[in-house]
Structures are given as C-alpha cells and as structure tokens.
Batch of 3 targets.
Target 1
Amino acid sequence: MNKKHKITIIGSGLAGPLMASYLSQRGYEVNIYEKRQDMRIHKQSAGRSINLALSKRGIDSLKDIGLYDKVRSKMLPMAGRMIHDIDGKQHMQRYGQKNNEVIYSISRSFLNKVLIDHAESKPNVQIFFNQKLIEVELNKSKLIFNEERKIVPFEILFGSDGSASPVRNSMEEISSINFRKIPLDHGYKEINMPPDLAGNYRMNPNALHIWPRGNFMLIALPNTDHSFTCTLFFPMLGELSFSSIDSENKIIEFFKMQFPDIIEMLPNLVEDYKNNPTGKLATVYCDKWNYKGKALIFGDAAHAIVPFFGQGMNASFQDCKVIDQMIEKYEGDWNEVFSNFTKNHKPNGHAIANMALENYIEMRGLVNDEGYIKKRELELKLELEFPNRFLPRYSMVSFHSLPYSEVYKRGEIQSKLMDEFLAGKINQQELKGKILKKLETIL
C-alpha cells in the first residue's frame, strides 16, 4: 500500500461528502472546502431543485457508507408516471413490471445535510465553509481561497464543485480536456402545491406526475409534508415561454389553458412563478477528467446533465463508488486510479448525458403518442419473454447498475429491432432470433 496522501475535496454538495465518507473508510485524511455557508445552520438561497429522484445507483452508494437506513423513511416511492391529459384525464404508466421497480422522491436539502453530518462525524474528515476557491495552481499544488487570498497546499485534489467547476477550469488552462458546456433552450421554474385543508396530498403521492404538452411540460414530485413540488420546463424565449408569460393575467390564463385540472390546487401560483428563480439547464462534456495523478473532477464538474432521466445525483454517487473500487484495485496509486477512472467511466458520463436529453423529448410529448405506447407494450412483453436478455432502457438505467454506455448501446439495438417488427419488416420469429443473436445475457 502506498503512503496515505491527504485528500482535499472542493464542494460539499451531494457528491463531495459522499466521496469523503468513502475515503474516510479507507483511512484517508480528508478536508472539504465549501464556498457557501453551512446549510445546516443557514437557509440556502433558492435556485436548486427542492427534491430529487433517487434510484438504485444512488441507493447502492448510500448503503456502502452505512447511510441508507437513515434516509429510508424520507424516501417516497414513485411507481410510475401519472400522465395528465389536457382534458383532465389521468393514466398511469408504470416504470417497471415488478413491485420493487420504483424510484424515490427525496428532499435535496435533507439528503445533503445527512451526507455532511455523516462525513463530519468521521475523525479523519474536516469541512471548512465560506471558502470560495478563486484560483488553483495545479503544478504548485496550491489552492487560493477568498478575497484575502488564503493559500492552502494540497496533495491530492478532488473537484466536486459543480457545472461551473473552478477545478475543471484550472485543468483546462494547463491541459487539453476539450470541455464543452451546451445550454438547453428550455429553463425551469418550481411552483409549490400545498396539502389540502385536511393536510393530505392533493394527488396520488406514489407517482411522478407529468403534464406533457409537446414543446414543454409540467412535472410534480411528492414531499414528506404532503405537498408537491411542481416544476415547469418551458422555453426561455418565444411565443409561449418564460419571456412572454410574464404578467399575472398571462400566468393564470396559461395555467388555466394548459393545466386546468390543477389550477385550483396552486394557491400561490402567481407569487411562486414571479418570485422563484428561472433555472438554467445545460450539459457538460469533458474529454479528460484528471490531471496526472494529482487532480480529478467528478459528478457535475465532469458530466453535468439535464434532469430528465432523474440520474444527475445517481450518476454522481456512482462516480464515488467506482472511484472507491479503483482505489482498492490500484492500492491507492493515484496515477492509476485517476487515469483509469477517466478512461473507463467517461463513456458512461457521455451516455447518460445523451439519454437524459432524449428522455426530455419522450416525457414532454411522446408519452401520449400511439406509436410510443405500442412500442412500450411490445417492450414489456419482450422483457417477460427474455427477462435476462431484453430489458427496457428505463429499467436498465434506474433499477440496475449496468454501465450507462452499455445501457445506451443495448437500448439502441433493442429500439431498432422493435421498430423493424412494428413496421412489418421482420416477423415475430425473426425478432426473437435477432434478440438471441444480438443481445447477450446480462442478468
């Protein structure tokens, strides 16, 4: 075993303290630096989503560090999508065919606080708040914080500092990492649906509710206080957009027309719409995640994605698990750990980024398309017939731990085979034969 280096992590969002907990279990001394105030003491300003979707990849990491049982009671199961048509009709599209194939709604702030508490409870982990990283000198192993330019040396640096990552920016200055940040022309705004007068949920709490409207959509996730957080994903510019729906009358008229079944359930609609920030969405692609054996970016810093597959947090948590496995495999040789993490895991970051973008098109429009519904029915039948070979892409992403890149490849093959069958180009026997030939057993 090599010398146990001191580890410095930038960022105490979700992935930073999780990574610190993994590292502490291996005996490393870890310091986390966070630009914000301690969120456990000071309320954070709005601008980040209130709740998140937690699925298998994230759950596995919470189990690894012994936190799963502590958060389990705050996880609200969602068994599928409850589709709300414009005429008020509702219909459920289950995520999977087994009772345990559910995803969970969980409070971002609750989970973040629990992760910080857990990391800080370790004797070899320290967290420093109000420390804004303004400069990184990688070649000199030096960090500079705040206006007073406090200098902090480091041995091994982890950047878990979000999509605007200063650690990544410093790597880009001295190394070719081919960083691209591609904005989506849609943004989002959150609106609260409080409990009814009796304190109960106003809708089914065991579903992720979706109002698909073609070029935009509204979704709603349940909270433990019996409220829902509704999120409008909407163009930033255009005839129907955040820029045009900008007055009380326009807001009310728009919601009456597009979401008539819930307009009466949103007593603070105008106030929330006007006062809550309009969040921006972007995808981060980066071809290199490490600088030698000295620095590594992970999570959103390496592969920020749009939220339409509910995998941003889960992908970041899986990063931590994979890094931990590589530390064990390469016995703490950071050159090997970092270079192999980048080489082997980067295709997975790119794959989930692409799948998240594709899922937005599905969620906002295709879920009610007749062709989509037929294809989904066929997909479920094939899963029952070939349970170890043919799994819906959503299931592979949310209920299994297959690498995202493998999920993407298998999903493409499966989609093409189903399209050929539904178009009458191949018959049932030919479809089954191609499945056996092209898809290896995975379970």
Target 2
Amino acid sequence: MKSGFPELKGEPGWSEVWPFPFWEARRSFTGPAGMEEVGMRYFKTAEGALVAKIWFGPSAEGAPGRAHGGALLTVLDEAMGAAAWVAGIPVLTARLETAFRRGVPLAVELLAETKLLQTGGRTLRIEGSITDRAGTLYAQANGVFARLTAGQVKTIFSRVTPA
C-alpha cells in the first residue's frame, strides 16, 4: 500500500462541486481527501457529467489490501444520489443493486462515475461505476431513488445546517 493521502485533484476542464445543500452530509463515511477511511471529491466534467475522485484508505480495508465491499457500496450510493441532487432533484435511495467485478486495492486513486437514466415520475433510475484511470471496472450499480417533495426535504433536513 502506498503511504500518504492524495489530494484528489480534478482534471483540466473539471470544476469541483458539493452536491448536497446541507453541511452534515460532509460527516458521512466519506469525506475530504486525507481521511483514513474513504476520501471523495466531486467534480463536474466539461461535458457536465458528475464524477468523483475516490480513494480507499487503510480503515476501509476488508480482505487484506482490498477495500471492503460495504465501502464500495457506500461510495456508489452517495455518488448516484449526488448525481440527482446536482441535477436539482432531491432524492433518497429506494433500491440499490451492486455487482462487484474485482477487488479494489487500497490507496489507489479511482473514479466514481454516474449516469441519470430516467428522471420522470416519482422515482429516478441511476447507474454508477467505480473504475481506475485505465478504465478497469471494479464495481457497478443500478439504483432506484425516490424523489423528495419540497415538504419532505424540509421535514427530513430541518435540523441540519445549510452548506
């Protein structure tokens, strides 16, 4: 495992974004680069897609030298939900199906990529994947996310601090 924590910088043409309108979301299992668990920073590409640079630290270890599947699932869930929030659609996860394709090494910079497939109606379908720079697929997920009304957002997040 490499030592040190990466900065998780964006690529040329990318701009950093924070997808959630509330401060407490920063205190989940993921956080800024430099954490020992999971570092994660969100960016919009020049084409407008939401991607996250991610890094699994030593506290995210499952099998020796590999990230725990629950950590991967957490990253995919958060990134897929973030794609909807960035698009102006507040959601909560209703169902998430994940396929783990290969073990994810610790201390390697990876990408979480998302795609909104269906946004009409009360639910959204979103897909996500975790890859490396070479395009190697480590995990992928498909999810159904429940669209929140303005009243639900107010009720659920009434005790949190705006970002």
Target 3
Amino acid sequence: MSAERDLARLLGDLRPALHPGRYVFTTVPAGTAPPGLAPVVTVAEDEGLTLVVPQGNADAARLSYDYVAAWITLRVHSALDAVGLTAAVARALADAGLSCNVVAGFHHDHLFVPYERAAEAVALLERLADRSGP
C-alpha cells in the first residue's frame, strides 16, 4: 500500500489506536541509556538522547520525567511529505485544550497526549475523521 498524501483522505482514514500503558519522556547523555530499556522513540539532541519509554521502565531505571502520556497511533499510512495532517490533528486537540507531542514514523504518525485525557483525545480524533471522511 502506498503512502497517502491527500489531506482529505488522510483525515478521513485516521483510525486512531490507543496503545495500552503510560509513557514518559526522559533524557540521558548520549551513549548512556541504561540496559533493558525499551524505548518506543529516540531522538538525538545536542543536550542528550531523548527517550520515550514505558513509565515502568523509567521508574525501574530511576530516570526522571515530568510528563506522563498516552500513546496514540494514527493508523492511516501517511506520506512523510504529506502537507497539513499534523496541523489539522494538532488544531483539533489544541481547541480542546489538549497538548500533543507528534512523532512521525515511516508508516504512521504517533501522538503522545496527557494520559488522563487519552479517551477524550481518541474521541476527538474519531470525530475529526468522521467530519472529514466520504
């Protein structure tokens, strides 16, 4: 299946999927990630390596964090050069007062939203898809 670029099709086929568990953002100096971590996202920054890991992994490794998130995957296969998807999703969530950290994977976009508002975020995304679909 080829990646979608058309914004209306992308929005109409979001199919948000909530992953079980709590996820946290933490940072470690480059090359010093504790063994046994299972990061779902890594980002190399000048200040160190950002890791998004299950909260239990961070707690076991005694890593500090401030933000506990839920992980939502948009199951639509979005092209990396598609225009407007991130903006439309972020706007829908921002209008409801929800923060959203977006990570683009090769096939899908992944959203990290406040854990306690995960169900609300999924419902908002489903409504966005319903309004945008055929």
